[in-house]
Amino acid sequence: MTRYIVRRLLAMPLLLLGVATAAFFLSHVTKADPLSAIVSERQMNNPEIVAAAKARWGLDRSVPEQYAIYIGNLLQGDLGTSFRTRMPVANDIMARLPATLELVLFAMVFGVFGGVALGIAAARWRDTMIDHAARLVALIGSSMPVFWTGLILLYVFSVALGWLPGPGRIDARAVPPAGATGFYTLDALLAGDIDAFLKALSHLVLPAFVLGWAVMGVISRLVRGSMLDVLEQDYIRTARAKGAGERRVLVVHALRNAMIPTLTIIGHSFAYLITGAVLTETIFAWPGVGSYAVDSARTLDHPAIIGVTLVGAAAFLLSNLATDVAYAVFNPRIGFGGADG
Amino acid sequence: MTEPALEIADLRVAFPGGLEAVRGVSLSVARGEVLAVVGESGSGKSLTMLGAMGLAPRGALVSGSVRLKGEELIGARQARLRALRGDRIAMIFQDPLSALNPVLPIGEQIAEAIRLHRPRMGRKEIGERVLDLLALVSVPDPKRRAAQHPHEFSGGMRQRAMIAMAIANDPDILIADEPTTALDVTVQAQVMEVLARLRERLGLGLVLVTHDLGVVAGVADRVAVMYAGKVAEEAAVDPLFADPRHPYSRGLLGSVPRIAGGATRLTAIPGAPPRLGAREPGCAFAPRCVLAHAACAEEPPLRPAGSGAAACWAADEPAPEPEAEAHGETRHAVTGAPLISVRDLVKEYPLGKSLLPWRAAERLRAVAGVSFELAAGETLGLVGESGCGKSTLGRSVLGLIRPTSGSVTFRGREIAGLPAAEMRPLRRHLQMVFQDPFGSLHPRMRVGEIVAEPLRLLGEVGPKAAAKAEACLERVGLEAGFARRWPHELSGGQRQRVGIARALALEPEALVLDEPVSALDVSIQAGVLNLLADLQAELGLAYLFIAHDLAVVRHISHRVAVMYRGRIVELAPADALYSAPLHPYTERLLSAAPLPDPAAERARRRIAPREPESGGAASGGCPFRAACPRAAPECAEAPPLLARGEGRLVACWSPG
After folding, report:
1. What number of C-beta contacts closer than 8 Å exist between A and B?
2. Do A333 and B82 make contact, defined as CB atoms within 8 angstroms?
3. Most exposed residue of A306, B412, B434, B584, measured as fewest CB within 10 angstroms of its CB?
4. Do A235 and B100 touch (CB under 8 A)?
5. Which pLDDT score, from 0 to 100, does residue B13 have?
6. Long-range contacts, A92-97 (Cβ 8 Å, 24+)
7. Across chain A, what does the average pLDDT equal?
8. What domains can be seen in chain A, in order of their start residue?
9. What pLDDT was estimated at residue B321?
């Protein structure tokens, strides 16, 4: 299995190079001139400034030349410099990635655990009120747009009830916990600062819930369906014939089998949230990659857009790999090719 | 007689809507006794047992009485039932692959059965008990096997693991629901032997639920025959086979093809078992019964008849003479130029992908150089156990699978590897009938359309095609009215007839029949076999008849080819092959096949296999070498298929 993982990891740079190429040329297909993002409208009339800007950002070269330079830089880990922030794109993204990752991880924990529990309950008590209630919860989560649920929940819990803080990762004027991971909750814990941890957590709860709700909806329906399938299987009857109780049948015999088809969706959800957290980040003023992507797109910040695309692609590839590995762990029938099978 | 350990009285299992699937069944088994419950699909035999264990499917209403050593189970609390299930009464199921949890190791699944009922037993003790149990059911190398998952076990080994799990707590009663139906004959014989041995060693009461009379003949003490949710007849095993009293029992026995017998016509029971909810009042068997008379409008109770009991008003009347029908002429020796000739046919499948582009992936030889000829009007039976390559061979002959190498000629014309466009006009002469009568008919097409579809090949559509389709349906014994019906409205036997009608629509010269009757109940199977024999006599069709059932193959075939690991190991006229097999593998197959005759079954000795079950194919040499009792040094070289007297070919260095 190790060999398999190494092989997959080795293939990743090649795939990312392909993604970078596609993103690079796609961004040049757009008619809009990135110069308008660099040079102010008034200065656009000054040919000297325009020429200087072009030379400064390499826009005076041909597209193939630009591409060669970009890829050359990319191979050295340089994602270019943002037109907008004038900072290296890699730095920009690294500064914001922990915020998104923290949000997405919490959302996933909520979505996966909530979804699996809801799915099991719905399957166990199928066609009862519990099942119908679970269906309704799932339906709301996966069909209501996050900007709507997000705003409603913000209003209810933050404005009306005052239980939770408003948007943002941390209270205004508060100093973010310093630490290596960039996850405020984890950094605060590592620093032993329980107060800061609870603060960070209270900021995280609403956006993570909103983001995770959609995932929970999908996963709970999937788990319910595959649990119902699995519960019809002969080995469930065998377990009952052995004298196993209902809880044991559900948790030991059914769930692990039912999780196998669910894993794919969990993996995809994770990758999807990394790039799809845009709306949630916008509503909760979350300084993550999503809102960075939106701002970059608005200002035709090509280096930043390609950089975000690459991060998203890497997230997809990694979560796919993680899914495949999890598959093998859950399903003994799957082996990986190679000598160590 | 000892006190019964399990006593079922007037058990009923009903589904919502008043559909009663089990209608008052009474059975009893003592410790150390083997009761066989025999019946066709839908007879309620499995449901009776599931109902007795409290495992009936969702929504089923179970009533009546089930006493386990005097303790009433119907209406008992769930917790009490759970405590008894797997401890005092245990069950094993038909398909040991689906009945084992795929994600848990075998040892863990057996350990669970112990732990659930012996919560205080230590980890180490349980582990030892698991290994003992696996050894008891003859699983070699228990320590290694216990850590493996079900998919790493062969079918027979899985069923042994199931048995180990069921007997883990030394139950009083073991219910085996079709324990060997999904297994090959040689494996079936081994599993049955394990069960018989356990009965003696542990003294447990065994209930053997099966559709196969042959399987029970050697092991059962008593037999209960079930029909339409009731016990039709119950008797000790010898009188039941020698002198069945219920016309259904007689029909069931008469419709089993005999390995020993020649080509007598099978006595098929006409019609099909009643469907749930579509039963007329009165005796459920009356519509199919040759003895039916006015009294049968009232349902007969189970009453003493002979040494047992039968639910028939005519149980004491002598059995009617079976219609003597000449059948011999369809089995005349067939001569003449071969219609189909197969030479050195090879079909390989790559095993996975090779990492290195210059190194070819390892390949599996599903068919490893097979040659035979099929004459017009002849039936060549192709027998072998699962995985021997018989289906692949059948499909390769028709070009449905492109063979890797070798030649197939039809009327002297090479058809192997022919481009699709050139093959298409030839297809009309070569048709196929598939195993699964459910999966092989398009569910959204009416029967008439299904049968008429191949006629498009000839450009025939519309009323003319419809008329032809109806003629084909009539030919297979389905009235014209069937053309308007949907596949799901038909029984298994009727569907298989539709499959045959479709194959006949193009007036082919040869049919490849891939396990055409293995999905059917015996009484239905007999009708289809008779039909195939009639069609051959009328139309002069050539059949390549692929099956795993030795008796069925003997019944229908002129010549029989035995396949093992992709090769034909023996090919001979049917009578010669069955009366004096020359290849050791053929001998072993024949010795494993169950006989529907208690005395003969008890008297015979089985050839114990020497095969390491997990053994990969020995590279080079005779493929049977590792399992062969006559293996010798020269077997390191693969023996060719050589002539050994009157039309016989054997691939063995030291035949018979």
Report:
1. 78
2. no
3. B412
4. yes
5. 93
6. A92/A292, A92/A304, A92/A307, A93/A289, A93/A292, A93/A307, A93/A308, A93/A311, A95/A182, A96/A287, A96/A288, A96/A289, A96/A291, A96/A292, A97/A182, A97/A288, A97/A289, A97/A311
7. 86
8. 2-75 (no CATH), 97-300+310-340 (1.10.3720.10)
9. 66
